[in-house]
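go over my protein:
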Amino acid sequence: MKVILKKDISNLGKTGEIKTVRDGYGRNFLMPRGLVEAATPGAMKAWKNSESKRTKRVAAENSGLQELAKKISAVTLSFSRPVSEEGAMFGSVAKSDIIKNLAAADIEVHKDMIKLPASIKAVGVFEVEVALKPEITAKVKITVTAQTK
Protein backbone atom coordinates (compact mmCIF):
# COMPACT_ATOMS: atom_id res chain seq x y z
CA MET A 1 0.00 0.00 0.00
CA LYS A 2 1.43 3.38 -0.98
CA VAL A 3 0.89 6.23 1.49
CA ILE A 4 1.80 9.91 1.83
CA LEU A 5 3.26 10.76 5.23
CA LYS A 6 1.42 13.64 6.89
CA LYS A 7 3.89 13.79 9.81
CA ASP A 8 7.46 12.73 10.48
CA ILE A 9 7.44 9.11 11.63
CA SER A 10 10.60 7.65 13.08
CA ASN A 11 11.81 4.54 11.27
CA LEU A 12 9.55 5.34 8.30
CA GLY A 13 10.20 8.80 6.86
CA LYS A 14 9.59 12.53 6.83
CA THR A 15 6.48 14.55 6.04
CA GLY A 16 5.51 14.50 2.37
CA GLU A 17 7.40 11.36 1.41
CA ILE A 18 5.60 8.59 -0.41
CA LYS A 19 6.28 5.22 1.16
CA THR A 20 5.12 1.67 0.64
CA VAL A 21 3.89 0.03 3.85
CA ARG A 22 2.08 -3.18 4.59
CA ASP A 23 -1.67 -2.97 4.16
CA GLY A 24 -2.52 -3.76 7.78
CA TYR A 25 0.02 -1.29 9.19
CA GLY A 26 -1.30 1.45 6.95
CA ARG A 27 -5.01 0.80 7.40
CA ASN A 28 -5.08 -0.24 11.06
CA PHE A 29 -2.34 1.89 12.63
CA LEU A 30 -1.19 4.83 10.51
CA MET A 31 -4.48 6.01 8.95
CA PRO A 32 -6.63 5.98 12.13
CA ARG A 33 -4.00 8.13 13.86
CA GLY A 34 -3.96 10.62 10.99
CA LEU A 35 -0.29 10.03 10.24
CA VAL A 36 -0.74 9.13 6.56
CA GLU A 37 -3.21 9.19 3.71
CA ALA A 38 -3.53 6.81 0.79
CA ALA A 39 -1.36 7.83 -2.15
CA THR A 40 -4.10 8.04 -4.76
CA PRO A 41 -3.46 10.19 -7.85
CA GLY A 42 -5.87 12.87 -6.55
CA ALA A 43 -4.28 12.94 -3.10
CA MET A 44 -0.80 13.20 -4.60
CA LYS A 45 -1.87 16.14 -6.80
CA ALA A 46 -3.50 17.93 -3.83
CA TRP A 47 -0.41 17.25 -1.71
CA LYS A 48 1.87 18.84 -4.34
CA ASN A 49 -0.45 21.88 -4.67
CA SER A 50 -0.31 22.59 -0.92
CA GLU A 51 3.46 22.11 -0.67
CA SER A 52 4.32 25.83 -0.42
CA LYS A 53 1.91 26.32 2.51
CA ARG A 54 3.36 23.29 4.26
CA THR A 55 6.93 24.48 3.72
CA LYS A 56 6.13 27.85 5.33
CA ARG A 57 4.36 26.16 8.26
CA VAL A 58 7.26 23.75 8.83
CA ALA A 59 9.78 26.61 8.69
CA ALA A 60 7.79 28.57 11.29
CA GLU A 61 7.45 25.47 13.47
CA ASN A 62 11.19 24.76 13.23
CA SER A 63 12.11 28.32 14.20
CA GLY A 64 9.83 28.04 17.23
CA LEU A 65 11.44 24.74 18.18
CA GLN A 66 14.92 26.28 17.77
CA GLU A 67 13.93 28.99 20.27
CA LEU A 68 12.60 26.33 22.64
CA ALA A 69 15.86 24.39 22.27
CA LYS A 70 17.84 27.50 23.26
CA LYS A 71 15.55 27.98 26.25
CA ILE A 72 16.00 24.33 27.31
CA SER A 73 19.78 24.53 26.94
CA ALA A 74 19.88 27.53 29.27
CA VAL A 75 18.04 25.65 32.04
CA THR A 76 19.76 23.76 34.85
CA LEU A 77 17.52 21.46 36.88
CA SER A 78 18.42 20.64 40.47
CA PHE A 79 17.26 17.59 42.36
CA SER A 80 17.97 16.59 45.94
CA ARG A 81 17.69 12.93 46.91
CA PRO A 82 18.44 11.14 50.20
CA VAL A 83 21.75 9.28 50.26
CA SER A 84 22.88 6.51 52.62
CA GLU A 85 26.06 6.75 54.68
CA GLU A 86 27.76 4.49 52.11
CA GLY A 87 26.88 6.93 49.33
CA ALA A 88 24.05 4.92 47.74
CA MET A 89 21.18 7.09 46.57
CA PHE A 90 17.63 6.26 47.65
CA GLY A 91 15.30 6.79 44.73
CA SER A 92 16.26 8.23 41.37
CA VAL A 93 15.64 11.03 38.91
CA ALA A 94 13.33 9.81 36.16
CA LYS A 95 11.81 11.32 33.01
CA SER A 96 8.69 12.29 34.95
CA ASP A 97 10.77 14.34 37.42
CA ILE A 98 12.50 16.12 34.55
CA ILE A 99 9.16 16.87 32.85
CA LYS A 100 7.71 18.33 36.07
CA ASN A 101 10.71 20.60 36.62
CA LEU A 102 10.70 21.73 32.99
CA ALA A 103 6.97 22.46 33.27
CA ALA A 104 7.72 24.63 36.31
CA ALA A 105 10.07 26.62 34.04
CA ASP A 106 7.24 26.99 31.43
CA ILE A 107 8.74 24.41 29.07
CA GLU A 108 6.35 21.72 27.89
CA VAL A 109 7.87 18.52 26.50
CA HIS A 110 6.55 15.01 25.96
CA LYS A 111 8.18 12.09 27.78
CA ASP A 112 9.21 10.53 24.46
CA MET A 113 11.30 13.62 23.66
CA ILE A 114 13.60 13.03 26.65
CA LYS A 115 16.44 10.67 25.74
CA LEU A 116 17.21 9.10 29.12
CA PRO A 117 18.06 5.40 28.78
CA ALA A 118 17.75 4.74 32.53
CA SER A 119 16.88 6.78 35.59
CA ILE A 120 19.71 8.75 37.16
CA LYS A 121 20.75 6.91 40.32
CA ALA A 122 23.88 8.80 41.32
CA VAL A 123 24.86 12.17 42.74
CA GLY A 124 26.53 14.53 40.29
CA VAL A 125 26.01 16.68 37.20
CA PHE A 126 24.47 15.11 34.10
CA GLU A 127 23.43 16.25 30.64
CA VAL A 128 20.22 14.82 29.23
CA GLU A 129 19.26 15.23 25.59
CA VAL A 130 15.80 16.47 24.65
CA ALA A 131 14.90 15.72 21.02
CA LEU A 132 12.18 18.16 19.97
CA LYS A 133 12.44 16.82 16.41
CA PRO A 134 14.99 14.37 15.05
CA GLU A 135 17.11 17.25 13.74
CA ILE A 136 16.41 19.70 16.61
CA THR A 137 17.85 18.69 19.98
CA ALA A 138 18.85 20.42 23.18
CA LYS A 139 20.77 19.35 26.26
CA VAL A 140 19.48 20.14 29.72
CA LYS A 141 21.86 20.10 32.68
CA ILE A 142 20.73 18.15 35.70
CA THR A 143 22.38 18.49 39.08
CA VAL A 144 21.66 15.77 41.64
CA THR A 145 22.75 16.51 45.19
CA ALA A 146 22.68 14.57 48.45
CA GLN A 147 19.77 15.57 50.62
CA THR A 148 20.70 16.93 54.02
CA LYS A 149 18.76 15.76 57.05
Q: What stands out?
A: The longest strand covers residues 136-146. The longest helix spans residues 51-73. Residues 43 and 141 are 45 Å apart (CA to CA).
